[in-house]
Amino acid sequence: MPKHSAIAELQEQIAFHEQTIDSLNNSVSQQQLDISRLQRTVELLAQQMKNMRLDLSAGQSAPPADDKPPHY
What's the Cα-to-Cα distance from 52 to each of 21, 39, 57, 62, rounded to whole Å? Predict the structure, then answer.
């Protein structure tokens, strides 16, 4: 194999690897954003559950959000 074609083949492989690494990096970055958003959502839901438990234990039970108001 001529030296020139071997170098060209290595350059192609390097370019392919760089493209693959960039693609994987973008995927990991997006996944990290998704994980952060999900963690914030879980924290919010946990706080809401805690507040609901405190309200129920204090006897301040609020009507469920999907109940119709009394005038219906």
Answer: 46, 20, 9, 9
Side-chain-side CA neighbours of residue 2 (13 Å): 3
Amino acid found at 60: Q
Question: Residue 59 region, left (φ>0) first, then alpha (ψ -120 to 50), else beta?
Answer: left
pLDDT in tens, 20-34: 999 999 999 999 999
**What does the DSSP 8-state code read for residue 72?**
-
Instruction: Tell the residue number behind the tokens 């492989």, with chain if given.
Output: 13
Encoded tokens for 36: 């952060």
DSSP string of 43-54, one letter each residue: HHHHHHHHHHHH
For the cut 60, the answer to whether the pLDDT of residue 62 exceeds it is no
> What global pTM score does this model have?
0.63
Task: Give the DSSP letter of residue 28.
Answer: H
Token pair for residue 68? 């119709």
